[in-house]
Design brief:
CATH topology of the largest domain: Glycosyltransferase
Protein name: Glycosyl transferase
Shape: elongated
Keywords: Transferase
Strand content: 5-15%
Organism: Novosphingobium colocasiae
Pfam families: Glycos_transf_1
Radius of gyration: 33 Å
GO molecular function, one term: glycosyltransferase activity
CATH architecture of the largest domain: Alpha/alpha barrel
Number of strands: 20
Largest sheet: 7 strands, parallel
CATH class of the largest domain: Mainly Alpha
Helix content: 40-55%
Length: about 775
């Protein structure tokens, strides 16, 4: 629907405009035919908060629901510091964990787009910089509404908006000036920019006498200003214009509607309002001002706007790119007198309203008197305003918004989000009060295979690493997995058991050497990373009890796992001598393995390749770092670079050692490829990157992470960000459709680590995709 024919002077148009149900039905029918159902996560301040962006966010939600019910809009309201943010979707503006939880919730919801309302003052951190990490965590395409685009920003303000612009799939602005500024100063691409003027109500024209009567204002000439009161509104200028207006039109009443800005009230109470009242008394115009000290709901605001003849916006600042109440006033057919701030200049062009110089009471008085002196000129301006407002009525606004959602939600041809936080539904579905089940048939847990220590040790490490979950939830599951590890310990043999049946009976008295090593690693990781002192104390106690019993275990991977756990303890407790001895022993043994097996073209610790291969290099590198053995680090990096080469295809994508290769001398067979190997490659490369800063390691980690999302030999997408599930690997026929514990944990832990790498680079292209120095095809 491009236009609605009308004649503002005719009663025929009044009848058509009143038929709101017809318009809504038409738009609903059109929307239902044009696009599949979509889900949008809408982030911004929201009612009942008193601010213009909260009103805009609420309007956007309500009008999409009214005119495009096929779009489900989930609101994630930003809450001020003094407002409880206890609902899953509420975001406490100054709490980083709250942003992380909301991002995870958005990803789990399967949102097709994140629509973010940006203003510097509503997000946490200096200039609201917490918004940057938040958008990085969300997988869905970003729609960005820029409510303020500064022409002279500070360095940090520029960096924040540039960060958002580079990640946005679509950007909405409400003024041409903002659009051009984003292109010229912030590097925005024109093809992602859309100008959508602020929406406005669709009400009949010329009903001010009826609404004046409702307010007891019959016979008065009514001026009005609405908004949160503060020095930036220029109300002093308007009040000083009243004596000259009253001298010509003594029936004038200036209605100042709106509460004092809550931030101003918190700082100085009602001192500002009282200063305006004092000014009115000094000028002798008190009887010509009516104060309504409330922040009005939209319908009551519209009723009060209808009762006015002229709407005043005497703002002294000229950079304001949008004003919702200005849009409302124009759409209701009010004559507007305004200073030439950005939105007013564009909306009131072509004599839709009257612009006056900032700070000039005389100019305001002259403009008001000219209109009241000539009722026909006043009526003509009101009609022009009403006609202009037809371009911004809610059905049109909602239609443009729906098209923006559809454009943003269309799938990108390729690319991987390296910063999105996966959901946890798939992980929790594999867990019960005993622990994490090993296997699944498709996505359904398979109880026939019970549990194992390996997976529950990894699950405990995931609890140590996860961001964006409630402390109580973290503790609940940490206790489940810790209890499994504790129960797996067999003190009679001095070793851990591994496999447990679903009925909680152990299948064995002792597990494999590698499962024992991984349990030690999980204990050391908990000592290093848990923020619960009691859990740290438990982990350290069991670790110190277990470690001497494992001294005789000498397989390369077992040594590597134990060394990784001991390195974690040393990073938190550098004086822990038992760990130091353990790391020394493991490092010397790994160096011995490397020396004995190395030959031309084979720079590896074993004569065969198996699983979790990069862990050997990672353990040697971490051991060298904590003990200051630079030679160990050099050898670790050389061996890691060698295995990276083995696990990179000729076309440049990650090709992990397949399980068919395990135990085959000097062979690398491509299938079956398993997520555990990608995780090991990512985490080992992350350690190398932290030690050297060499972007080769960053790029390799990103390449291995892209493997989860289709950058593999079969183009199989294994990971699902919404649920956090991961398929069990790549076979010659494509993805193994089962989603077992090992695969889910490998993906979740890989995500935790890749985020730490990306956080140190911030090199981005379209959306929130990292730009590796080596091309990665997805």
């Amino acid at each position: 629907m491009n236009s609605i024919p009308f004649d503002v002077a005719s009663s025929h148009f009044h009848a058509a405009a009143d038929d709101g149900d017809t318009v809504r039905s038409l738009y609903a029918a059109l929307s239902s035919r044009s696009a599949p159902p979509r889900r949008v996560a809408l982030v911004g301040t929201y009612r009942p908060r008193m601010c213009g962006i909260a009103t805009f966010t609420a309007d956007l939600h309500d009008k999409l629901a009214e005119f495009h019910p096929d779009i489900t809009v989930d609101v994630y309201p930003l809450c001020a510091a003094d407002t409880p943010a206890d609902a899953p979707r509420h975001i406490a503006e100054a709490d980083p964990d709250s942003y992380a939880r909301a991002a995870r919730h958005i990803n789990e919801s399967g949102a097709d787009a994140l629509w973010l309302q940006h203003e510097y003052g509503i997000f946490g951190g200096p200039d609201g910089e917490m918004v940057c990490d938040f958008v990085d965590r969300v997988a869905a395409p970003l729609i960005l509404t820029c409510h303020t685009v500064l022409s002279h920003p500070s360095e940090r303000q520029r960096a924040i908006l540039h960060h958002l612009v580079t990640r946005a799939s679509q950007i909405m602005v409400m003024s041409s000036h903002s659009l051009e500024l984003l292109v010229a100063q912030y590097g925005a691409r024109r093809e992602v920019l859309t100008l959508i003027e602020h929406g406005a109500p669709d009400r009949p024209f010329g009903r001010q006498d009826d609404f004046k009567a409702n307010l007891g204002l019959s016979g008065r000439k009514v001026l009005m200003t609405f908004g949160l009161l503060g020095p930036g509104k220029g109300l002093e200028t308007a009040i000083r214009a009243l004596p000259a207006i009253i001298a010509r039109h003594p029936e004038v009443l200036y209605r100042i509607v709106g509460a004092t800005h809550p931030n101003l009230v918190a700082q100085e109470g009602e001192a500002y309002r009282e200063s305006l009242e004092a000014l009115a008394r000094e000028l002798g115009v008190t009887r010509h001002i009516q104060w309504d000290n409330r922040f009005l709901e939209t319908e009551e605001l519209l009723d009060q706007l209808e009762a006015s003849d002229i709407y005043l916006t005497p703002y002294p600042g000229l950079q304001q790119s949008t004003s919702g109440t200005l849009s409302y006033a124009v759409a209701l057919g009010k004559a507007v007198i305004s200073t030439p701030y950005l939105h007013a200049r564009e909306l009131l062009a072509n004599d839709v309203g009257r612009l006056v110089e900032p700070g000039s009471s005389a100019a305001i008085a002259a403009a008001v008197n000219a209109l009241f002196d000539d009722p026909q000129a006043l009526l003509a301006m009101q009609r022009r305003a009403y006609r202009r407002g037809r371009e911004t009525i809610w059905p049109r606004f909602a239609g443009a918004a729906a098209r923006l959602v559809e454009t943003a939600a269309a799938p990108a041809p390729n690319g991987v989000s390296y910063t999105a936080t996966p959901g946890l539904r798939g992980f929790y579905a594999m867990c019960d009060a005993t622990g994490m089940l090993q296997h699944a048939i498709g996505i359904v847990p398979d109880r026939n295979h019970g549990y194992c220590l390996d997976d529950n040790a990894r699950a405990l490490m995931l609890m140590n690493a996860l961001e964006g979950i409630e402390p109580a939830e973290r503790m609940r599951w940490s206790m489940v997995f810790s209890a499994f590890v504790q129960h797996a310990w067999n003190p009679d043999l001095g070793l851990f058991r591994n496999f447990m049946r679903f009925d909680r009976g152990w299948c064995e008295d002792m597990g494999s050497q590698d499962s024992n090593g991984r349990a030690v690693w999980a204990l050391g990781d908990t000592v290093e990373r848990s923020d619960d002192p009691d859990l740290v104390a438990w982990a350290l106690q069991l670790y110190e009890r277990v470690l001497p019993s494992l001294a005789g275990l000498e397989s390369p991977r077992t040594l590597a796992f134990v060394a990784l756990g001991a390195c974690g303890v040393l990073r938190r407790r550098p004086d822990h001598e038992l760990s130091r001895e353990c790391v020394r022993h493991a490092g010397e043994a790994l160096m011995g393995f490397l020396e004995s097996q190395r030959r031309p073209g084979w720079h590896w610790f074993e004569s065969v390749l198996a699983y979790d291969n990069p862990r050997l290099s990672q353990a040697l590198a971490e051991a060298g770092a904590v003990l200051g053995e630079s030679g160990w680090i050099d050898e670790a990096l050389a061996s890691l670079r060698w295995i990276c080469g083995i696990q990179t295809s000729a076309s440049g994508h990650f090709r992990p050692i397949g399980s068919e290769t395990f135990g085959q001398p000097e062979t690398a067979m491509p299938f079956d490829q398993q997520p555990l190997e990608a995780q090991a490659a990512i985490e080992a490369a992350a350690v190398a990157y932290e030690l050297t800063g060499d972007v080769f390691w960053r790029d390799h980690a990103c390449m291995a992470y892209a493997w989860f999302f289709g950058a593999n030999d079969r183009g199989a997408v294994l990971a699902d960000l919404a649920t956090g599930r991961c398929r069990d690997g790549v076979t010659p026929r494509g993805a193994n459709l089962n989603c077992g514990a090992e695969s889910i944990l490998a993906f979740q832990l890989s995500n935790c680590r890749i985020r730490s790498i990306v956080a140190t680079t911030r090199t981005v292209t379209e959306g929130n995709r990292l730009e590796p120095t080596r091309e990665v095809s997805v």
